[in-house]
Amino acid sequence: xxxxxxxxxxxxxxxxxxxxxxxxxxxxxxxxxxxxxxxxxxxxxxxxxxxxxxxxxxxxxxxxxxxxxxxxxxxxxxxxxxxxxxxxxxxxxxxxxxxxxxxxxxxxxxxxxxxxxxxxxxxxxxxxxxxxxxxxxxxxxxxxxxxxxxxxxxxxxxxxxxxxxxxxxxxxxxxxxxxxxxxxxxxxxxxxxxxxxxxxxxxxxxxxxxxxxxxxxxxxxxxxxxxxxxxxxxxxxxxxxxxxxxxxxxxxxxxxxxxxxxxxxxxxxxxxxxxxxxxxxxxxxxxxxxxxxxxxxxxxxxxxxxxxxxxxxxxxxxxxxxxxxxxxxxxxxxxxxxxxxxxxxxxxxxxxxxxxxxxxxxxxxxxxxxxxxxxxxxxxxxxxxxxxxxxxxxxxxxxxxx
Length: 402
Known about the structure:
16 helices, 402 residues
């Protein structure tokens, strides 16, 4: 098989050649866009799921759908150590640049850009003299209008974000369009900023403004939002992104290969589904290696058997190992205990059971657990429970005890 023609694409956020099994989510988003276009109220959207299920890919596809309808869009990736002021400002600047040329009153667009600039600049840290303390902090948002005063510049994130998004939505409403702000890794948004996002979405929904937030994050993201604002349960529409059903996983393999004139035997598809367990990233990873080792079409179960150890070795280094290496010895000890209790399936386990397994008091393990949560390696499935954010991570740890 020609490796140059290999159609499979395992990568972080990289769109697979066949986006299988996500038709329902795409159709639901089309309805959201249509309803907003007709002035109907709609909730913002939150995608949740484990690592490797394709949340970022789907987020990018939803953004493409919004762009195709003439919406202004911007996308950011949240980081736990970063305020949203700068990234949100950049994203909205991009969205307004897309919409601005279609607006009949360029002066009003410039006024809103001034609000965006004021929002961004208000977040700059200042020293005792009032000037930014470091060169890297003297950041300019690249907006060629003066910063507005008295709008989105109070310093209160909740007040400022509500004003900013309301003004931006007004530009979209003037031309019969909308704005969609996409936030990846949303569970990493700082607590004050989470509260501000919820408050802004709440206000915008009451106003019927054509601006929505589309977030993606780990399974505990709904709990993060709920802890910030109790009404967030009714504020967002939550979509759980999970592993692919068997027919979708098969289609993700068959369709790209078919375009290259290559077929799979049924036994090969059976073996690949068993290996990948329906997780989109694993489907691509095993599919890519299987293609490379296969001598000719049709691809057989024997080809999969030959490819599986190679694919597992690559995953052990790039997908699992890179995450494991970020953990401290205490955190690794905690994860190994989780793996032994949860088994190869990586089931959620009780934090009290982890403590018993390690012969420690639960309180003494809290720093390790909290650090693992911050690093995105585990999440609190329910109160008193903990689970891996990465599918098959328990299996990896059981195979690599050191």
